[in-house]
Amino acid sequence: MAETLLGPAEIRELAARLGVAPTKKLGQNFLHDPNTIRRIVAAAGLRPDDVALEVGPGLGSLTLGLAAAVRHVHAVEIDRTLAKALPETVTAPHLTVHLSDALRIRGGAFDPAPTMLVANLPYNVAVPVVLHLLAELPTLRGGLVMVQKEVADRLVAGPGSKVYGVPSVKLAWYAEARSAGKVPPAVFWPVPNVDSGLVAFSEREPPAGADRTDVFAVVDAAFAQRRKTLRAALAGWAGGPDRAEAVLRAAGVSPQARGEALTVGEFAAIAAAARLSVPGGKLSRSDAQPEEADS
Ligand code: SAM
């Protein structure tokens, strides 16, 4: 890895030269600790032939570490000043900067196609960004993201955990996730008032036999009322509690269970059973009807 990583003095100097005043709105807390950069790059498990996608390169701290480890880096930055200055800090020819909102970017925007997502994410949009990119970029084989510690705990939680919820199940659709450790506030400028956590993930085959949109609709409905039994929580989605019970029984899931106990495979079984029980159609919150669908 190149040893030209940015420390506190370089970060301050760069920010002053560019006239950058970090904003909370864009989650701008910049890493100024070379050891943390080395730790992130090592924990990501990158291969020299990987194509890294970094969301929010900021002043380029992590980008420098990534550029030394992989064959290409795509950096997606929403802040025009930062995006414009990045190629001056990271002079590698294998860097492509995309001035864009990561939540709106499409898979086709990248050539070569990214294989790993590695990012110190803007914390306010971290979960939607990860889920959006996994949906858009089937070429990703895995990644490592830094997020607020509580969000990291949620992303890696399994069934039965108090913090298991919508982000945990949706990430599990795409990937196996695990914690890669905690990061203290002192390594950022400005210092955030929260701890941070690293989440590593590797691509996995999604459960067979169900459509992702259908499964995510079940997950959203189940956790919208997480204290209720699935029979009650899925009533609106299924078109009534009796119908929810029938679908759950067909899927082999107890109607008395709660969403927080189910694996992503069980959510997929519920969506698949619902589809089978409505000839030619699918259930969703908006079109759930007891009678058969038209087409
Ligand atoms: N990677 C840098 C580092 O570690 O020092 C900066 C990380 S900072 C936590 C988050 C970065 O994401 C900022 O540069 C911010 O401008 C950028 N950002 C915020 N929202 C974004 C979005 N929707 N799309 C792309 N970049 C975004």
Layout of strands and helices, then pairs:
Blueprint lengths: L7 H11 L11 E2 L2 H10 L7 E5 L5 H7 L4 E6 L2 H10 L5 E5 L16 E5 L5 H11 L5 E7 H8 L9 H9 E9 L4 E2 L6 E8 L8 H13 L5 H4 L1 H4 L2 H10 L13 H14 L18
Parallel strand pairs: 2-3, 2-5, 3-4, 5-6
Antiparallel strand pairs: 1-8, 6-9, 7-9
Helix pairs in contact: 2-3, 5-7, 7-8, 8-12
GO molecular function: 16S rRNA (adenine(1518)-N(6)/adenine(1519)-N(6))-dimethyltransferase activity; RNA binding
InterPro entries: KsgA/Erm, rRNA_Ade_diMease-like_C, rRNA_Ade_Mease_Trfase_CS, rRNA_Ade_methylase_Trfase_N, rRNA_adenine_dimethylase, SAM-dependent_MTases_sf
Main location: cytoplasm
CATH architecture annotation name of the largest domain: 3-Layer(aba) Sandwich
Radius of gyration: 21 Å
The CATH class of the largest domain: Alpha Beta
Number of strands: 9
Which percent range fits the helix content?
A: 25-40%
List ligands, each type once: S-adenosylmethionine
The CATH topology of the largest domain is given as Rossmann fold
What proportion of the residues form beta strands (DSSP E)?
15-25%
**Pattern of helices and strands:** HEHEHEHEEHEHHEEEHHHHH
Number of helices: 12
In short:
The protein is an alpha/beta fold. The protein has helices at 8-18, 34-43, 61-67, 80-89, 126-136, 149-156, 166-174, 212-224, 230-233, 235-238, 241-250, 264-277, and strands at 30-31, 51-55, 72-77, 95-99, 116-120, 142-148, 175-183, 188-189, 196-203.
Provide key terms for this protein.
disordered C terminus; 295 residues; elongated; 7-stranded mixed sheet; rRNA_Ade_methylase_Trfase_N; 2 domains; methyltransferase; Rossmann fold; transferase; alpha/beta; Helicase, Ruva Protein, domain 3; binds S-adenosylmethionine; two-stranded antiparallel sheet; 12 helices; 9 strands
